[in-house]
Amino acid sequence: MRGIFIAAQLLFICFLTSGQSKSFEVKVVGNGQPLILIPGYSCSGEVWNETVAHLRDKYECHVVTLAGYAGVAPVDTPILKTVKEDLIKYIKEKKLKHVILMGHSLGAFMSIWIGSEIPASIEKIICVDGLPAIAAMMNPAINYDSLRRSPSMNAEMVANNFKAIPTQNYIENAAKAMLYQVSDSARARQIATWSSLCDRKTLGYTLVEISATDLRAEMKKITCPVLILASTYGTAENSNKVMNEQYANLPNKKIMVAASKHFIMYDAPEWMYKQVDEFLK
Length: 281
Prior knowledge:
Layout: H1 2-19, E1 24-29, E2 33-38, H2 49-55, E3 59-66, H3 79-93, E4 99-104, H4 106-117, E5 122-128, H5 144-149, H6 155-163, H7 170-178, H8 185-196, H9 200-211, E6 226-230, H10 236-246, E7 253-257, H11 264-267, H12 269-280
Parallel strand pairs: 2-3, 2-4, 4-5, 5-6, 6-7
Antiparallel strand pairs: 1-3
């Protein structure tokens, strides 16, 4: 009887364990030094397909899609903090050495966050048009304590606003809006399609979570080289100004500005590959 009880306990524990999932999905492609690629807000890891094709012969590409995005099942809040902690666990559990982090937009923010917490495990970071403090982009002196108390930072309200967006014509309308961030209409439609597959609560909560988080002080802990690739915010001079303000606490950085909209991997792929290849060699 005692043996049956123990077996039942073990079965229950196994059931609980099997029901738990990381806050992201990952696809591993290629061979070589580990390179973790993190997509931006609402996007699938497929946004990196062409980049992975370029890098896979030299790097083991771990391509991530966050929970709640592009059809991946959502997780409970706080979402981004959970993703960060789970990615750190993933690096440790897989015993990945000399890790390179490459993130676009929200993925760049996540790469900076991870690099700040486990600097000894990260060899290089590539930030593709992402910021450590997005709410401070227009006003570097913004008071984050006041911001977090503002009605606009009510995550449930923001999530409900996303839930209220009609499903009908969602992709068509989102694709039109996305043309401000990418030049090619087919790419815009693909990004809009990923967005249509997102969990609406996740869209709201992650937008608030990234807006309410300031990593500028945390960046001082990063010891590895960081490549920052920026799109053109009006002018190249303005882009340089914004990036230098945002990344002022990084001692070992290189900032390059592309003649591109936000999705540099789509608008200026060859330019991006050149910068990445030179940085990684």
